[in-house]
Amino acid sequence: MDSPVKDSWLVIVNPNAGNGKGKKDWERISLLLCREGLNFNAGFTKSRGHAIIISADGIAEGYRKIIVVGGDGTLNEALNGAYFQKICHPSDITLALIPVGTGNDWGKMFGIPLVYEGAVEVIKRGKTLLHDVGVVTYHEGDEKHTRYFLNIAGLGFEAVVVQKTNLQKEKRKSNRMIYFYNLIRNLISYKNIEARLNIEGRTYIRRIFSVNVGNGRYCGGGMRQTPDALPDDGFLDITVIRDIGRLEVIKSLKILYDGTILSHPKVDGYRTKSLKVESDKLLFIEADGESLGHTPAEFSIIPSGIKIIYGTRLIL
């Protein structure tokens, strides 16, 4: 028998987010939630992937509203919990974020303040949007897996940088500049890889530096690699950086941040509902800053896949 639907919030707290800010600031955040009259019960993550379990179990217990106190990775896990459970349709779930991570890229799209009082006020106002959900199927060896994402997934160089950054996060050596540091450092050894990109039945063979697949516009602490993406248009925005050299990447860093990346002659942009990527040499994958597996991979979109709480409709 299904549990009755609860009116209160499930709060998923990542105590390690933001180099321990999740734990350090939780008392302050909880007092703010109480002050605004938001009834809640909190669960604390203990390891990578635990927020998926807390989210799915909470939905089984009757929660339909979830607040994430953490970063984009914890939000991604809460989303995946909503999709892995079988109690209700994921679009019945509402996700909200109090940003405590180091990047906090997803929230930039929706005017979610980094100041806790402002983030709680956004939740209190309760404006909702049906947000598209990206889907990626990928491999770990011979095993095939599925992951859902809200913001941006990346292949190639992007995923290598994310992997290095996540390893440092696990060692509590993370800050807002660590992604940029790893980007520059890994340029020395990274080699571009030939891949076959199938976009809605048409195949492109490209030697690529990276591929970004976006519902959102920001990643890597403020980069705009899919600068025109919209979270509710039913499409994925694809940015392919082709066979570019490391010196040219360094010279072009400005356009990674200012939204003009698609103007570069070695960058291709697509808007599509599906993408398939194959490569003879493995291309590694990340989604919402979470390191996954490798190619072959397929991407698709679930329109209006989940409700989110937002502050402003869209920051252009």
Which labels suit this protein?
28% helix; Tumour Suppressor Smad4; Rossmann fold; 15-stranded mixed β-sheet; alpha+beta; 9 helices; 316 residues
Question: In words, what does this structure look like?
Answer:
There is one protein chain. It contains nine helices and 15 strands. The model has no long low-confidence stretch (mean pLDDT 92). It is globular, with a radius of gyration of 19 Å. Strand 8 and strand 9 form a beta hairpin. The protein has a 15-stranded mixed β-sheet that branches. It folds into two domains: 9-126, Probable inorganic polyphosphate/atp-NAD kinase, domain 1 (Rossmann fold, 3-Layer(aba) Sandwich); 133-303, Sandwich (Tumour Suppressor Smad4), CATH 2.60.200. With 316 residues, the protein is an alpha+beta fold. The chain has helices at 17-24, 26-35, 50-60, 72-84, 116-125, 157-170, 178-186, 246-251, 253-258, and strands spanning 9-13, 40-44, 65-70, 94-99, 128-140, 143-149, 152-156, 193-199, 202-208, 210-214, 236-241, 267-272, 274-278, 284-287, 290-309.
Short description:
The protein is an alpha+beta fold and 316 residues long. The chain has helices at 17-24, 26-35, 50-60, 72-84, 116-125, 157-170, 178-186, 246-251, 253-258; strands at 9-13, 40-44, 65-70, 94-99, 128-140, 143-149, 152-156, 193-199, 202-208, 210-214, 236-241, 267-272, 274-278, 284-287, 290-309. It has 2 domains: 9-126, Rossmann fold, CATH 3.40.50.10330; 133-303, Sandwich (Tumour Suppressor Smad4), CATH 2.60.200.40.
